[in-house]
Structures are given as C-alpha cells and as structure tokens.
C-alpha cells in the first residue's frame, strides 16, 4: 500500500523527495553547471582586469582625472582575482582529497 496516497500528497515520498517522474539532474548535469559557473567567473575576472587596465591607461594619458574610478576598477579586479584564486585552490584541494581516497 502506497502511504503517499493516504497523506493526500501524491508526488512526495516519506522522505520528502519528489518522485513524480520529473527529470532529475544527473551528476553530469550538476558538474556541467558547476563548470559553466567557473567559466563565467573566469570571464568576469578577465573583463574586470581589462577594465582596470583601460582605466589605468586613460588616467595615464590624461583622458580621465578621476582617481576614484581608477581605484574602484583596480579594487574590483583585485578582489575578483583573489576570489577566483581561492575557488581554484579549494577545487584543487578537493581533487587531491578525492585522489587520496582508498577503495
């Protein structure tokens, strides 16, 4: 006897998991989404670094005299790079830990 019918909730099992036949994400889909997120983070870091370089060049050429915008662009690029490096370090650490597992 299916107890989900007694509760009046036809799509949820006793553990709260949805079993209505809706497509579940596979491990490949989950990895792909994480990988695409990492790629977008790299692209954003690259864009911020390029914007900081452009701000430096325009300030050096005298096209802009606003030091605040220059500092903000540099700080954004710096923080983005630090964040990206830390994410990379954690991924490498997790990879090494997985490789050390013994089955």
What would your notes on this structure say?
This protein has about 100 residues and is an all-alpha fold. It has one domain (about 25-100). Helices cover about 70% and strands about 0% of the residues. It has three helices and no strands. The chain is elongated, with a radius of gyration of 24 Å.
Layout: helices, strands, pairs:
Layout (H helix, E strand, L loop, with lengths): L2 H5 L19 H34 L6 H33 L4
Helix pairs in contact: 2-3
Question: Which features does this protein show?
Answer:
mainly alpha; 103 residues; disordered N terminus; elongated; 0% strand
Mean pLDDT: 81
Overall structural class, as computed from helix and strand content, comes to mainly alpha
Termini, distance in Å? 39 Å
Number of strands: 0
What is shown here, in short?
The protein has one domain (25-99).
């Amino acid at each position: 006897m299916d107890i989900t019918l007694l509760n009046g909730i036809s799509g949820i099992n006793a553990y709260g998991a949805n079993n209505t036949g809706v497509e579940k994400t596979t491990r490949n889909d989950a990895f792909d989404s994480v990988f695409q997120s990492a790629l977008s983070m790299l692209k954003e870091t690259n864009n911020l670094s390029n914007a900081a370089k452009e701000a430096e060049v325009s300030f050096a050429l005298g096209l802009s005299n606003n030091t605040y915008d220059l500092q903000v662009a540099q700080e954004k690029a710096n923080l983005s790079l630090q964040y990206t490096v830390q994410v990379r370090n954690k991924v490498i650490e997790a990879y090494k830990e997985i490789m050390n597992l013994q089955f």
